[in-house]
Amino acid sequence: MGAILATNVRHYQGRLTLPDYEISGTGPMAIVGNGRQAGGGVQVAPRARIDDGLLDILAVRDIPASGLLTAARELQELSPDGEYISYWQTPWAEVCTEEAIPVNLDGEPQRFSKVRYEAVPRAIRLIAPPNCPLLSATVK
Questions:
Q1: 41-70 pLDDT tens trace
Q2: Which residues are catalytic?
């Protein structure tokens, strides 16, 4: 169903810049997070830890029908060098597009043509249960 819905998504031309990598092209989305789940409990960043000082970036580029099997494999592997889907962990990321694109900031819709995301380690203090899977190390 996700593949069918992805064919109806508007694609944007842009550039994603990371500290040591840059990717340009057309794609339907990039997901930036410091937690594993998006709204509704959908896991989009399975390696994310909320206290590691890193953002998890999942970039999805334009996927032709002939590339669906490759994209499905890349979604399972989550490597930085996928042909259609790439995954990175980085302290910051910048997105620049030719036109303003819709951005969902934790449920708040916005539009940007340039945005920088940056992880700020230990910006807030959290109370978490022992052995919380969202933390880098177990809570003592």
A1: 777 788 888 888 899 998 888 888 899 999
A2: 108
